Amino acid sequence: MFEQKPSHEVEGIVRGAPRQDCVEAEIWGRVPKHFSNIGVCQKASKDSQTIRNKILWSDESKIELCGLNTKRHVWRNPGTIPGTTVKHGGRNIMLWGSFSTVGTGRLVRIMEKMNGAKYREILDENLLQSAQDLRLGQRFTFQQDNDPKHTAKTTQEWLQDKSLNVVE
């Protein structure tokens, strides 16, 4: 079997040497083919980026101000009677926000319980304004997760009434 050597390691062979010199020096390889469809790939990549630049994502989140948003465990010695424990927490805020590849949209503090009606009210007051602030244009795509208030029939009807493109 022949040992394959790069052309720059063989004496007397200059990088880019003619094929016959490489064959005589027992250097085997091939010249990469030129892809005629490279322009198609580049165009598809640019189109994909353009589509991503026109997407507005939104979500809501509860932020715990004191402690963690998880169960709390109390450790006691075996055989002791549980005493009074001090519970911290209970202070939290609920936020709705939107963002795009261009930047962040509006951030809204939600003071009452979040339900479908409150969600539609937030969208009505902030969604189109966020898209306008981010200069996404009239034909942007809206993306949200599958929370029940997002998939509610009344919310879907609201989105259709506004003629919004929504990622399913």
From TrEMBL:
Q: Which PANTHER family match?
A: SI:DKEY-77F5.3 (PTHR23022:SF135), TRANSPOSABLE ELEMENT-RELATED (PTHR23022)
**Protein name as it appears in the record:** Transposase
Q: Name one GO molecular function term.
A: nucleic acid binding
